[in-house]
Amino acid sequence: MNNPFLELGIRHDIVNAITELGFENPTPIQNQSIPVLLTGSNDFVGLAQTGTGKTAAFGLPLLELLDFEENYPQALILCPTRELCLQITNDLKNYSKNMQNVNVVAVYGGASISDQLRQIKRGVQIVVATPGRMLDIINRKAIDFSQVQFVVLDEADEMLNMGFQEDIDSILSTTPEDKKTWLFSATMPSEVRRISKKYMTDPFELTMGEKNTGNANIEHEYYIVRARDKYAAFKRIVDFNPEIFGIVFCRTKIETQEIAESLVKDGYNADSLHGDLSQQQRDRVMKRYRERGLQLLIATDVAARGIDVNDVTHVINYSLPDEIENYTHRSGRTARAGKTGVSIAIVNSKEIGKIRQIERVIGKKFIKAEIPTGFDVCEKQLFGLIHKVHNVEVNEQQIEQYLPRIMDEFADLSKEDIIKRFASIEFNSFLEYYKNAPDLNVTEDTRFTRDGAQGERPSRSGSNADFTRLFINLGSVDGFTRGDLLGYFCNQTNIVGRTIGKIDIKGVYSFLEVANGDVDQAFNAFKSAQYKGREVRIEVSAEGDRDRGGDRGGFGGGGYKKREGGSGYGGGGNRREGGNSNRGSERKEGGGFRDFSGKRREDRGERRKRY
Ligand code: AMP
């Protein structure tokens, strides 16, 4: 039987290699672009999400078209991040593993340039590069692009978002006029449209799905909660999805770190990925995540760019992105390679408008979902456990020697008692934690949760609602008192002191509240500010929401802890477990929880149907 890749015109030794990678049938973008690109005579614009098989869509034709008897740069692939750069390089090496003399080099920042220069000197046909480092190497006159035939701009929208426009211009000016340019982008903002006009003549355009829309396999859901309940709601969603393998997006580095720390304290397997980490630290986090050593990766938009991990089940927008376009990039981290995935937004009632805006951009409606009740979570976890016990593989040989003693221990218990006890070992902690858990959902058009608690605070003049809480990386270790910081800040920004709200001095950082209307002025003033030779950084603090909420359960280490060691039930195999039921239910949520007698089922009606 003919392999469909052979029919598309890909040679046997490449087809054999990709078959080993599990490529049986071309993805839609491969089906449509490979025949066009194999002609080698078109410029090309492909609008496609990440995870659709883009790399092979351009990579396989490149391997067919280049002359590997020659050892000079013939193709240049530019992409936005180091992760993507390594991924593409690795993919190309895998596709070409049965071919002779194929040399691919990865050129990216944050790694030794001399190694890269050495590899280039040895001879290379395909260069995969991030723009900054590529330009550096060009400026050192260490590479000659005068015979490049193909340039691929991968994730063009991301490269422009990251401000690489000028670098790309400079790099492309060193390549021949008559080269062919292939551009791939998940979205088509006007900037991308402009560069496609600038660099291409009459390109062949291919749109997979609708322009600017997300992947059809992603279900988009939003949950409305009070700002102060956000973390508790987030944990419920995670507990309700014990098999979750997710990426959680935050807006700032601080928020990223705080959420990750709180989750770790609460016993979840989570870590953060953000720009303040060294490359080595980031690599370590990514390695753990890829290998499923982490269940939740908490990331900023920039840090998560180019992450290519298959089987991500959920993307959670803990905070919605400032730039609506970023929502598409975030959600594209799930549902890769034809799989399905869920993208969740946890919002407060003031943010509904943003959800509607996103719907317009992705061309798809969000489903309004309900935060599971404590009962829902407990039930899900319990049956997850039961299912696992039922399906566990028993090592008959190993266990046999212990059986007589085990039977002896249980001699006085009935089968029912034994089952109840096994289930309770893990389950008690969930019961305890979710005892009295309130309904956290807020209806769309009121400021009240459905169990009557007050929702969003009304905005009063002079209340915190008019202020933005800013983080600044100066604090008591720099010798600042509240008065000093006020003076320094006002001097720097020209903002009048009496408009500044609360100031909290911490060790190496502090927080201060600034009138919303002054935030831009503050950011402008600190653009390149230094204090005693050190860069001064301000950010909008993620704590803003939380502080205003008053009694917010669970954040910052309260809440239920899972056990250390061992593997959890209900799919939480990645979480920390062990010890016994010391899962402090410091967190008391009011009302709502009932026992498992079944009495409650009928009055949960509608809400349950989502699950
Ligand atoms: P990409 O969009 O190139 O990042 O690809 C996303 C994922 O899909 C990668 O893990 C690829 O290995 C995988 N993939 C690409 N093409 C195919 C295919 N034809 N069949 C199966 N998996 C594929």
Specify the CATH class of the largest domain: Alpha Beta
CATH hierarchy: architecture of the largest domain: 3-Layer(aba) Sandwich
Q: How many structural domains are formed by the residues?
A: 3
Distance linking N and C termini: 43 Å
Number of extended strands:
20
State the helicity in percent bands: 25-40%
The residue ranges in which pLDDT falls below 50 over 5 or more consecutive positions are 446-463, 544-611
Helix- and strand-based class? Answer: alpha/beta
Count the helices. How many? 24
Rg calc: 27 Å
CATH topology title of the largest domain? Rossmann fold
Mean pLDDT: 80
Q: What do we call the CATH homologous superfamily of the largest domain?
A: P-loop containing nucleotide triphosphate hydrolases
How large is the share of residues in beta strands?
5-15%
**Spatial arrangement of strands, main beta sheet:** 3-4-2-5-6-1-7
What is shown here, in short?
With 611 residues, the protein is α/β, with parallel strands linked by helices.
What key attributes describe this structure?
611 residues; alpha/beta; Rossmann fold; Alpha-Beta Plaits; 3 domains; 7-stranded parallel β-sheet; 24 helices; 20 strands; 14% strand; globular; binds adenosine monophosphate; DEAD_box_RNA_helicases; helicase; EC 3.6.4.13; RNA helicase; ATP-binding
SSE layout:
Blueprint: H1 4-8, H2 12-20, H3 28-38, E1 44-47, H4 54-65, E2 75-78, H5 82-95, E3 104-107, H6 113-122, E4 126-129, H7 131-139, E5 150-153, H8 156-161, H9 165-172, E6 180-185, H10 190-199, E7 204-207, E8 218-224, H11 230-240, E9 246-249, H12 253-265, E10 270-273, H13 279-290, E11 296-299, H14 301-304, E12 314-317, H15 325-331, E13 341-347, H16 352-362, E14 367-368, H17 374-391, H18 396-400, H19 403-409, H20 415-434, E15 467-472, H21 482-493, E16 503-505, E17 510-515, H22 519-525, E18 530-531, E19 534-535, E20 538-540, H23 543-548, H24 605-608
The structure holds adenosine monophosphate.
Adenosine monophosphate is lined by residues 21-23, 26-27, 30, 50-56, 308, 310, 336-337.
